[in-house]
Design a protein that fits this description.
With 91 residues, the protein is mostly helical. It has one domain (10-90). 57% of the residues lie in helices and 0% in strands. It is built from 3 helices and no strands. It has helices at 13-26, 39-46, 61-90. Helix 2 (39-46) packs across helix 3 (61-90). The protein is elongated, with a radius of gyration of 15 Å.
Length: 91
């Protein structure tokens, strides 16, 4: 499956993947550091959503959201927490 989402700073991809690994491991998922995108299959399996490698046009928007939401949502929460810590350290 191709990565369709673009990040503003392409050089940050490696750090974002590492953040995904760390956050999802903290949530109890098994994540391989060299294949962080595979976490979506574990989340889909947990949600009983038939996600497979390749084209998944049969999935509804709701199903796709149930897969990506927990991953991206937890990453955003962690980034906010990190930003708050940085702001507190500057005071």
């Amino acid at each position: 499956m191709a990565r369709n989402n673009r990040i503003l700073v392409p050089e940050a991809r490696e750090q974002l993947d590492q953040l995904k690994v760390n956050v999802m491991k903290e949530k109890g998922y098994q994540v391989e550091a060299n294949h962080p995108e595979d976490i979506k299959y574990e989340v889909a399996k947990e949600q009983e959503i038939p996600l497979k490698k390749g084209y998944n046009g049969q999935l509804t928007s709701e199903q796709a959201g149930k897969i990506g939401g927990p991953i991206g949502g937890n990453m955003v929460k962690e980034m906010i927490k990190m930003a708050q810590q940085q702001l507190n350290n500057k005071e």
